[in-house]
Design brief:
By secondary structure, this protein is of the alpha+beta class. It contains two helices and six strands; from the N terminus they run βαβββββα.
Length: 105
């Protein structure tokens, strides 16, 4: 997985309560997740000056990175990515978004 953000990329902060709308606007194409959509985590420094992670959605075809602002940053990259996958799967179960196995695995 490539964590490099292209220089001209559009980086958007997204509050977690707007995740479904952001997913529909940026990651879904023709009723399905864009095939190049990736779930990942971006490193940040938290309020206590400690390293932490925020979940993110990268859509290379549109050069967009959505950084999801959850209540707290996560201690590990894996925890941030898993949190995002769990949220998307829960929204898919209630019909709010469509995800593919590869995206939310």
């Amino acid at each position: 997985m490539n964590h490099v953000i292209p220089a001209a990329a559009l980086v958007l902060p997204v509050p977690v309560h707007d995740l479904a709308a952001a997913w529909l606007q940026h990651a879904e194409r023709h009723g399905a997740a864009a095939p190049d959509t990736e779930l990942l985590a971006v490193p940040i420094i938290d309020r206590n000056n400690n390293p932490a992670w925020r979940p993110a959605i990268r859509v290379p075809s549109t050069r967009t990175l959505l950084v999801i602002h959850t209540a707290r940053p996560h201690a590990t990259e894996a925890a941030a990515t898993q949190c995002l996958a769990d949220l998307l799967l829960a929204m898919a179960r209630d019909g709010s978004v469509r995800v593919t196995q590869g995206v939310a695995a």
